[in-house]
Every structure is written in structure tokens, then in C-alpha cells.
């Protein structure tokens, strides 16, 4: 009882400072941030956000983070400790580290360093800025360094000012005008520099206390033509008059405070609207108000899921959409938008006096013009708009007559100012503000128990009665006699009390009729004066069944609105029922849990989504992440309208207040842009940054590509949906919802245009996104069957040429006297054109197998390599000598095809002496291939498991040594495995090749024989075969 008498304080207490109206969104390690220690933040020219941390650099596109770590050889970043960021007027991104300054190349996605002799290459960079001419200035521990854009040279301004021992450890740089540069340092003075005259002035710190010292100064921000704000170590925020060179203190927590050791302001930032924000070590983020000279920190709200949970901030930055980003030393990055005020969140806050008690907000109901009942699982709370305070009545789980109850599900204030609250399974509460008395009614109440005490809704009727929905049955309750009537004690057998499965009731005051909706899809109208219950279910006949009704309401035009499993249903007299459905992409369920008409709008919720339906045009606007509706459980039964015409809804973390007049249905989403483009899942390097590229040229073998999309709208965040279309390939847009990746496979050669579009919560598409022309080169084949026919014809021709050539050789050999020499020459020429018919037909069978298995990727891969091998053999057939590089190309292709054909049963390795210049060393064509073929077919393939093939090429004095080694079954076992005809044919091929080697060496005055060595294990068993071929070293220049 004592707690209840404090309700009168709502009208007398001093108004509290409101909870922060801002909603903060955190980016932490779970989102991919490399380190929670954030030193600097910037936005580049394309829209990416960059976060410098103590362990790597982070790039954020609104969805995912790409990380960059120190790797001077590959990406150019010199240190993981990234300390400063700056995007200059030309769009160049500068990154300062503890080991120098680098620039980012957007097209190559790499960092560029300066010459090793430049002093900036090893400096510890704290801050970066730019003058009116585009010259870059870096404040470092080693001094003030500047880069002249016209010459590309770095110079030490500290040395030019003869202050190389004082103007160091620079923490902040600010151009107050185009010629005047201010520099803050760590206890080494505050400098005013004229860059046109290379002159400086050291300014001493003086206040009303007549302090004079070399203060540790950090961040600066210009206020007007004569005043700036300066952040300091331990002394907070100060003002500085540039005309008088005088410092003055600010008021509030950021002034000099001997009780706080590190009352430090790291950075000061002026946003687009002229508001000043400071990043502070002890007081987090604060706003400075020039009119009152006062700083007000953002409150720390550990229970608020959208609060700023942390004591420190290191940097603050405003992006082009006016979001403000805050870096912290332990909590990563926070983002908020001070201009987004259409939704306010009231968080549970049990530690603050006048805060909302801990629990789930299950119901909300207006009591009068100032008072709001907040029904919670923990009890009831009352919020006063006037005093901005909560009075919490913690309930109990048992009806004892005069104590508050928990599990509050509904409430109202009757015509006499009495407050009524319904609970789940405990009954109802009656509170009289005039007498400050509480009374409860439930199944234990005597002599008139309320047995159906699970009250989900209550409606005040004419006279002294209220209609209650208890356990899905109708009860009437007399507010004066406290007697209830239901099917349990109905002696008149009224149809009203016989209804079951009652979902909700709605009171039409104008027509004095109560509408009753059933969860199983029925609809009744009840006249409380005559007691007549009329079945109106026929009004729903046009709707799809089964129909489940969850809630009913009436708008100002006497239209019925039903929340159902089919969506939102509108029933207007004399017209067919209309149905409105939520977008499935927003939530997988079409079911509506509660519905609230407000003027021409209707608010819809399904416990996960809140949306506004414009009944004039049917447009649905969704409230999403930027409004705080992310990862939250809504309680649809709490959806209500406040006395001050705002929409309210409860959740598991507090409740929301929506200001409908601030919601803009016509705002388009930001346009969509590419953030990455990949071919075969590998980054594809474009001529410019991928977010601005206009044309991409791809080869015919690069027709498998994918891409990522972002609108760079950090306010909308996950509320944005995307679609893409490859014009010339797609007939329709490919809708991907909140996913942001697309891909295409097996795109035929031709010219296409990739189009992107995006939409936000209002459902309107922005089709002005990036458009990229994509050219895919055309191969000489298009279909698999055509490829097979062409290759079969090619194989037939090659085989005919081979047979005809052999016949010609044999014929010509009879006509010449020098039979042996001429025959060898002709055989050499024939061998340059030959390729085993068995290999050709086996290759075609392999291709056919891939096609039959519906594996076009492998078929295309095999065909590409096979056709290239055939082409090389044809080209080499006209030559007596080819380069070693060309021979190795043929060998590599042949071995790769055999590996594919035999399912990678063996591995191979080709090792070339670095002293051999393969492009100028000449040998006869197809010298190595026969030995390699022999090793594969008869040495490695018979192995039960995979084997190894090694090809080595070494230089020895005036000749080259070729080594072909396998760990196969050995020659003796191979003889047992092969038929005599195969043995003869292979032996004949090897013999001819050995004769060609002998003739080549003889022509170049070199004598050597081919050695074939049987390898043995220590046990004496076969361990493979080694072939050594020595040939004359012939080079062409």
C-alpha cells in the first residue's frame, strides 16, 4: 500500500533528464573487427568506413569487415598498429601507422609506400591533414612532416623552423585558415605556424588561474573566426581565442577537475548542423553547447541495448549520411544518428531512481493525458510524461486482495478515473487514485470468485459493466458490485457466454456495439443493450481458410480491422474484405498478431516486425534496424496509441515510442554499388576501384563470376534489400532480399550490363545504382555436343595425316640411296606430328564421360587443354628444333591431361636448373614425352595407390641432362603386365626417339647414350625406373 501512495508524485516532482534519445549500434569483435582498440575513423570517397586499430586496419561496407594486416611484400601495410586516417580532397586514403605513412590503391587493393629514404617511411604518425593546395601534413613523434603534391617530396617542417627538438610528438593539426596551421603536442608546446613564411609562435597555456605550462594538448576544432576548442590531457575541454591567445575553461564535467586523474578529451568534432561532439577518456562521448559553455556526456546505460556502454572514447567522425561514429579503447566502434528521432526507446533501468523496473513489457495502456500504464511480467509500472519518471509496482504471483500482481496483460482507466489491470492467471487489479487503495479479484476472491482469471483484454461498456476476455471466454464484471458472470454461473444460457476460442473484442462507441473475434475464424456482433449476439462470420467467406484471428480493432471510418494468420484484413460495410500482407523478405511469417488503426494509417506487428500500412495507397513501411527493431522480441498485445498520439509497443528489453509524423514514406534507399567482383571466387583486378568501374572485360574462360553489393547506407543497415539483373542474360530481376551477393555461371560470350537496385523499409526501389558493362569473350565452341563432334573430326584428320605420312616415308625411303639417314629424317618429321591414337580416343572418351556425368566445368577444362596440346603439336610438326620452353609446354599439357583422365592417380614435379634459359635452348620436338608416357602408363598406373613422377633438367658443361624418374612397378613387372604387341610398339617408339637423340647429338659433335636405370629398395625389390638423357646444349640468340 505504501508504494501506491507515491502516484501523486507524478504530478509534483521535478522532471528528470530524459534517457538518451539516441540509439547506438556497436561494431565489435563478433562483427569481424580485428581489435577493440580503435584509434581513428574515416570514410573514403566510395563510402567505405575505415577503422584504424591497435591490431590491423578494418574496412566496413555496412555488412562485413575486410581486414588488412602488416605485409610489406604483398599489401604494403607497414605495421598492424594503425594510428591515423585521412581522406584528402583528391579521394586518396592516407593511413598512418607506428612505422610510417602509406596510401591505398583502390584498384589494386594494396597500400603504396614512399621511397625508403623519405623520413615519413619510419615515422610514428599521430594525425594527418591537408592545406588548400592539396599538400599533406603529418604530425608524427619525429616532427611535422609535409608532402608537396607538385613534386612528390617530403620535407621536415620542424627542422625548417629550427624546432626539430621541440616540435615533435605532435597529436593534432588544424588549419584555422588557409595559411595558419595549429599544432598540439605532448607537453612540448602549442604552436601557431604560418606556412607561407615558415614562421611559428609558441603559445603558453593561461587561464583565470594564471597557469603557465606546456600543456599536453590533443584534438582541435574551429568554432568561429576567433575561437577554437582544444582537447587536453587531464584538464578536459578548453576554449582558445586565436586573437588574444588566451585559454578559457568550459563548464560541466569536462573542465578542470582535481578528483579525476584522466579527465582527457582526445578529439573535438563539429558536425554538419554545427553541433560539437567530443571524444573523452572518462566521460565517453559528450556534446558541447556553446551558448551555455557546457558539456553534457551521453549517459552510460548498461541495461539499454541501444545505449553507449563504456567509459571512454578515443575518436569521433561524421560520415556523409550524418551518422556519427565513435571509436573506443575497449568496446570497438559505436554508431548513432542524432537526426534520427522518429523512434524513442525506453529501456529497463532498475538502478536509476525513477527508471523502469526490470522485466518484459507485455502491455501498454493510456490512463489519462499524462499517465501510461506499463504492464510487465514483473508487475505494473506507471510512466508520467510530465515528470519523465516511472513508478514501479512489483507484483506477486498470488492474489491476496490488496497487493499488486505480476504478469500484467492489459489495462484501462474507466469513466470514473479508476485504473483496472488484467493479469495472466492471477485476476484483475483495481486501483483508486483518489483513495490510493488497491484491490484484486481472482479465483480466490470471496464470495464472488473470478474463475477465468487469465485476462487478455478488457472493454468498458455502458453502465457499470466491463467485458473481460478470460481464458478465451467472455466474462462480464460489474465495477460496483464486483460480481462476474460467465458460462460458469450463467443461469439464462446466454449465447454470449457460450462462445469459445475468443481471441479479442472491440468496442464501437459510435454504434454501441461490441465486435467479438474468434481464433478459429468466426466474427460476431454483440448489442449490450438488447443482449443480442449476431453471427457475422459470413463477412469473411471470401477469405482463404483456415483463418485464425488474433486481434480486432475499429478505425475512425467504422471499418473493422482483423489481425490474422493471412495478414491484415479490412472489412468495410457493403464491400468485399481486403487483405494486406507483410513482405515475406522482411519476416518469413505473414501472420499479424496485433493491429492498430491511427487516422489513415494502420499499424501492424507479428512480434518480430512493426510496420505502417497507408490505407490510401496500400504502401507498407517497415521499421527496422535503424529504429532499434533488430534482435528484439516484440509483444504484439502491447501495441497501442498514447494520449499524446504516438504509437507504443513493448519488447523484452523495454518499450518503443514511435512518432508517426516523422516517418517519411517517400525516402528512397541509397543506390547500390559493387564492393567486390570475383572470377572463380578470386578477386578480379579492375582498372579502377570496383565501386566506380564502368566496364569489365572477361575472357571466355572467365565466365563464372560473383559480386557483393552495398548501398553504403549505415543508417538503414540490414533493412535494405537488393536485386540485380544481367541485361542480355536475365529476363527478370534477381531478387536477393537482405542478402547482398550475386553470381553467374557459364555465361556465354557476348556483351551484357549488370544492373543493381535497392529498397528500404518503405518498399520503393532505387534503380539508379551502379551499372557495369561486362564483355565476355566468345570461344570457338558453344555446346558440348558440338565440341565433341569438332574434336572427333580433328582426331580423325590427325590420325589420317599420321597414317599418310608413314606411308609417304616408307615410299620415299625406297627411292633414296641413303636409306637409313633419309628414313630417320622422315621418321623424325612424322614423329613431330604424331600423337598416339589411343591417347586421342581415350581423351575423347574422357570428355564424353564428363558430359554424360553433367560435369561441363571439367569437360570445358579438359577440352581447353586438349585442343591447346593438339595445336602445339601441329605447330611443332613443321620445325626440326623447338625451344626447351615450348617442349615443356607440350609436356605439361600432356601430363595434366593424363592426370585428369586417370583421376589424379599420380603426382608430378618438373624441376629446371635456374642456369638454363629455356626460351633460347633448342632441342628436337617431342623428345621427353615418349619416356614420360612410358613411365605413366607402365610404371605408375599399375600401382595400387598413387605414384610420383619427377622430371629434372640440369646443365652439365656443354650439354643438358634430362632425368625422368618414377616410383612405379619397375620394368620387369611391366613386361609381365603388357602383351607382346604393346611391348613391341612401345619399344619401337622409344628406339626411334633414342635414334633421334643420337642424330641430334651427332650433328652437334656430342656423343652420349640414353641410360635406363632400374631403381631398387633396400630390400632389393623394384622401386621404379630412372631415365637419363644427355643432349648437346644448343642455344639461339
Describe this structure in words.
The strands form 18 sheets. Strands 59, 61, 62, 64, 65 and 66 form a six-stranded mixed beta sheet that branches. A five-stranded mixed beta sheet has the order 68-70-71-73-72, covered by helices on one side. It is built from ten helices and 74 strands. With 1037 residues, the protein is mainly beta. It has six domains: 1-20 and 349-500, YVTN repeat-like/Quinoprotein amine dehydrogenase (Methylamine Dehydrogenase, Chain H), CATH 2.130.10.10; 34-272, YVTN repeat-like/Quinoprotein amine dehydrogenase (Methylamine Dehydrogenase, Chain H); 510-663, YVTN repeat-like/Quinoprotein amine dehydrogenase (Methylamine Dehydrogenase, Chain H, 7 Propeller), CATH 2.130.10; 673-776, Immunoglobulins (Immunoglobulin-like, Sandwich); 780-878, no CATH class; 900-1037, Heat Shock Protein 90.
Characteristics:
mainly beta; Methylamine Dehydrogenase, Chain H; 6 domains; 6-stranded mixed beta sheet; 74 strands; 37% strand; flat
* CATH topology call of the largest domain: Methylamine Dehydrogenase, Chain H
Low-pLDDT parts are: 1-19, 831-835, 980-986
What proportion of the residues is helical, as a percent range? 10-25%
Number of helices: 10
What value does the average pLDDT take?
Answer: 88
Q: Number of domains in the coordinates? A: 6
Strand content: 35-45%
Shape assignment: flat
Task: Sketch the major β-sheet.
Answer: 6 strands, mixed
Query: How does the helix and strand content classify structurally?
Result: mainly beta
Q: What is the CA-atom radius of gyration, in angstroms?
A: 41 Å
**Span between termini:** 107 Å
What is the CATH H-level superfamily of the largest domain?
YVTN repeat-like/Quinoprotein amine dehydrogenase
Assign the CATH architecture of the largest domain.
Answer: 7 Propeller
According to DSSP, the number of beta strands is: 74
State the name of the first-level CATH class of the largest domain.
Mainly Beta
